[in-house]
Amino acid sequence: MVTSRDVAKLAGVSVATVSRVYSDSNAVTDITARKVLDAARQLGYIPNTVARSLKSNRSRTVGLVITNIFNPVFYQVAAVITTELEKFNYKVILSFNSTYERSLLKNLQTLLAARVEAIAFTPLFEDSGVLELLNSSNVYSLQVLGNAYQQFDSIMCNDYAATSKLTQYLIDRGHRNIMLICPTEDRKEGLLHTLAVNRIDLYEGNYISPLPLENSAAIIEDAITKYRPTAVVAVTQDVLTTLMIVLKKLHYKIPEDISVIAYDENPLSQYENITTIGHNIQYIGTEISRFLLDHLLERNAPGDSPRHIFLDTTFIERSSVKALTRGSKDT
């Protein structure tokens, strides 16, 4: 096995210098660092980061738990976070969570065992096991794109306001039979509240949630055939793709036969000219990174109260919504 002593010998430096190159120290010149890294490449040297973290009590790693790997927003945000933290010599350990909160608990336990210095995660709902684990760990915990625990900082998109806005947008154009298709239930309140404010009767077909992946097309087709909505809101790119397949099968044209609004800007919504609720991915990822770095670099004052931040969305109007005539049988 190649050791740091072998690298030091080939590079013509001390073992301590090799150690400094792989630490967060700035006491090594660029020329020396290049010599050490070149020697390490030639020898196939892999530094023992676990041993180093035990010695320094710093792992310089951050755990990130992504809840929905099928939603491009999550892994796009993860890419931004990874890039931003690397600027400060922190690495991200990425973990994927299923729709079950116990999966989150296991992922958090694994990350804590890896000695991460902070954790960013998306909670599905409050779980006493998760709360107890994070409280006892003394590791900074940040909720992203969700908020189930008031004790921890959170950064969320204001999806309630966005869903309310798009619902009112549809109502103003004569739509009363509106369907929201969402894998989870986190956006339905904005829809239901806005319908109620406009004195539009609620019914079972106003929202389809949760939406299992294995038979989502059949569920959507049955719902559209049964409830005959004049407008459908597709949350996530995966839902939009499935919806487009179903509408094609049913010979529905957009917006002539049905109006469609998408959540999250993506190539499909652009290609099909779908009105869309968009998220600023770079801004979301940068804000999450800022929260993490505030803790990691000790920029927060001790005893600060939990911070809960809502980020605004954007409304991208295209040509996928048809204005209905008041009194039409379709309204």
UniProtKB/TrEMBL annotation:
SMART domains membership: HTH_LACI
Gene3D superfamilies in UniProt: 3.40.50.2300, lambda repressor-like DNA-binding domains
UniProt cross-references to PROSITE patterns, sorted A to Z: HTH_LACI_2 (PS50932)
Residue ranges constituting the HTH lacI-type domain according to the UniProt record: 2-56
Pfam entry (one): LacI
Name by which UniProt lists this protein: LacI family transcriptional regulator
InterPro entries: HTH_LacI, LacI/GalR-like_sensor, Lambda_DNA-bd_dom_sf, Peripla_BP_I
Matches recorded under PANTHER family: LACI-RELATED TRANSCRIPTIONAL REPRESSOR (PTHR30146), TRANSCRIPTION REGULATOR, MEMBER OF GALR FAMILY (PTHR30146:SF154)
GO molecular function, one term: DNA-binding transcription factor activity
Keywords carried by this UniProt record: DNA-binding, Transcription, Transcription regulation
UniProt key word Transcription regulation: yes
Source species, domain of life: Bacteria
